[in-house]
Design a protein that fits this description.
15 helices; five-stranded parallel β-sheet
């Protein structure tokens, strides 16, 4: 989508369609006002009361309590780092006026909002340090969707690792220690970040699948069914529900399990999970591999742009907004930005510039030597000489 509007002039039409703005501010957007998904992207429906006189279902009451607990966790000390990432991230600057950076920066906002509307995963590529990972934290912070559920991918990662962990050894040991005491199988199941993201919820969670290009060749295909159907099962709990004789057949055989959210448990009925609000899935990639066409067509794709001078100033202001800089420091910062953007070094991460500015502001001019600057701003593809 080509957008010719200046970055500091978001039209009313744009505002009417945006949920996520990417500027770190609160826009009084209520995620509950998100339109219904397309007919081909509908998932489990949570029954809402038709009027104030109608009693809420037990499921709805439990989900409301759960969402409040998630909000409390998001505002707690445990999520302090996530809050800081969300507050300081910037996609575009209201003060930017340079025409050459307007269109791609605004397009990131369009891509995020389209993914939210269509309930589709977003595949984000870009150079290291361009803000791919921080984008997920910005979405969660701005839309108040709880802590980010982060799954860091390795070459050995499997879909089950992201869905849940079952500690069969601990269960066996406990049963041998006390053979007369029936074991609660829920104590030995912990949902991973992916499994937690697809739990029934009043509102979508933000799921970050970081560096998916590091994964085994089969993982993207394994994710296809989950992204399409929005459901999964835990075989150990399915077998437990089928064999359990402790409940009447008319009762739902549910078990409480731990989740990725600290201190929050979820009820799993008959070992199966159906999502109600498709999560906002952000998958980051450094562009090191190609993905299967069947996987790619189910995603929206965007590349994080490399920042120009104006964008870098916005990022710097967001990180050092509480610090007063002298005119000399401001001049030095501009010199560091110029050095950072040198064409000879195409691959540099934004945090390298932030590190250089921080050290420069806390050292005497004599201590901040050219060699130290070269060390801090060394290109990522530069080979170290022996």
């Amino acid at each position: 989508m080509v957008n010719n509007q200046p970055q500091n002039d978001i039209t009313e039409n744009q505002k009417n369609w945006l949920f996520f703005y990417g500027d770190g501010n609160s826009h009084n957007v209520n995620i509950a006002d998100l339109p219904d998904p397309p007919p081909w992207r509908k998932f489990k429906e949570i029954k809402q009361p038709k009027s104030e006189q109608t009693e809420k279902s037990p499921e709805l009451i439990e989900l409301e309590k759960q969402w409040q607990t998630i909000q409390d966790l998001a505002n707690s000390e445990a999520n302090k780092r996530g809050i800081e990432k969300g507050q300081k991230f910037r996609i575009y600057s209201p003060e930017t006026e340079e025409d050459d950076c307007q269109e791609p920066l605004v397009n990131v906002v369009d891509a995020v909002n389209a993914a939210i509307y269509l309930r589709r995963p977003l595949l984000v590529t870009g150079n290291p340090g361009s803000g791919k990972t921080s984008l997920a934290y910005a979405i969660a912070y701005e839309l108040k969707l709880g802590p980010v559920l982060n799954w860091a991918i390795t070459a050995r990662s499997t879909l089950q690792d992201g869905l849940y962990r079952y500690d069969a050894i601990a269960r066996l040991q406990d049963s041998q220690l006390d053979k007369n005491q029936p074991q609660d199988i829920g104590q030995y199941v912990t949902l991973g970040p992916v499994g937690t993201a697809f739990l029934p919820s009043l509102h979508p969670r933000v799921l970050l699948i970081d560096e998916i290009d590091k994964s085994d060749i089969n993982l993207p295909n394994d994710l296809l069914h989950l992204f399409e159907d929005g459901k999964y099962e835990i075989p150990e709990l399915v077998r437990w529900a089928d064999k359990s004789h402790t409940m009447d057949n008319n009762q739902q055989k549910s078990v409480k399990v731990r989740t990725e959210d600290i201190g929050i448990k979820a009820s799993i009925i008959r070992g199966r999970v159906d999502c109600s609000s498709f999560p906002i899935v952000i998958m980051t990639s450094n562009g090191e591999r190609d993905f299967p066409p069947a996987f790619v067509r189910r995603c929206l794709r965007i590349r994080m742009p490399d920042p120009d001078t104006a964008a870098l100033k916005t990022i710097i202001n967001a990180h050092f907004q509480d610090e007063e800089q002298s005119e000399n420091m401001k001049k030095t910062t501009e010199q560091l930005i110029e050095a950072f953007l040198e064409k000879e070094e195409q691959e540099r991460a934004n945090d390298q510039l932030l590190n250089a500015i921080y050290i420069r502001n806390n050292l005497s001019p004599e201590a901040f030597t050219d060699d130290l600057q070269a060390l801090l701003l060394k290109g990522l593809s530069t080979t170290d000489e022996v």
